[in-house]
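Lecture notes, part 5. Sequence design as translation. It can be helpful to think of inverse folding as translation between two languages: the language of shapes and the language of residues. The source text, in structure tokens, appears below.
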């Protein structure tokens, strides 16, 4: 029991919620209804029995006030840098995280698979990061685990270089474990953990899946 508690305290999760949802008519993605809850409530619940340290990243104080009633006492961070996309939220989230390793995920991914997350944490142990990789070589940087201290430095350097794309800091990590999809399919055969919402069609497709 003590060992399990120690391991869980070494882990954090950062839920990126600061996107403006342009393709959804600037709808607040986090508040899209999902089952009996909002999407952000559903995703937080997905992590409650897996990781104790949950951080929610939002773009500004206005959005923070909108989402606070749905987040409860979880840690909320706001972007200090503007116009830098997800990197701004990742930087503040990593600074607030308590764990040595942080799982990063977008708030529009409702079918997070706990077994996949555990496997990514285990894969990242003693490395800089563990990123899922597709057969074509593309990776999933917003469904990955990073070593907190190392990644904070690389995000800061990327922002200084005015490199605003999510993979900019990843490219400067020296020790990355790439986890192929065949390994992930052992836990999630349909790879539903990667499903996300960008359009109204995506909402319809997501709702066709079983909602817990």
């Amino acid at each position: 029991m003590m060992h399990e508690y120690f391991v869980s305290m070494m882990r954090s999760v950062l839920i990126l919620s600061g996107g403006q949802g342009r393709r959804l008519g600037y709808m607040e993605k986090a508040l899209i209804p999902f089952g009996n809850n909002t999407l952000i409530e559903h995703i937080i619940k997905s992590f409650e029995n897996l990781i104790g340290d949950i951080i929610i990243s939002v773009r500004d104080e206005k959005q923070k006030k909108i989402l606070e009633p749905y987040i409860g006492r979880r840690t909320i961070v706001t972007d200090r840098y503007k116009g830098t996309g997800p990197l701004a939220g990742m930087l503040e989230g990593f600074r607030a995280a308590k764990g040595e390793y942080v799982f990063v995920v977008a708030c529009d991914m409702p079918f997070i698979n706990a077994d996949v997350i555990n496997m990514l944490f285990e894969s990242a142990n003693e490395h800089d990061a563990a990123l899922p990789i597709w057969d074509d070589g593309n990776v999933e940087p917003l469904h990955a685990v990073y070593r907190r201290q190392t990644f904070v430095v690389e995000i800061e350097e990327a922002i200084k270089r005015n490199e605003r794309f999510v993979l900019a800091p990843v490219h400067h990590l020296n020790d990355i474990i790439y986890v192929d999809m065949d390994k992930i399919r052992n836990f999630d055969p349909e790879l539903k953990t990667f499903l996300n919402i960008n359009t109204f069609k995506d909402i319809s497709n997501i709702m066709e899946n079983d909602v817990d």
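The translated text above is only one of many valid answers, since several sequences can fold into similar shapes. The first helix runs from residue 2 to 9.
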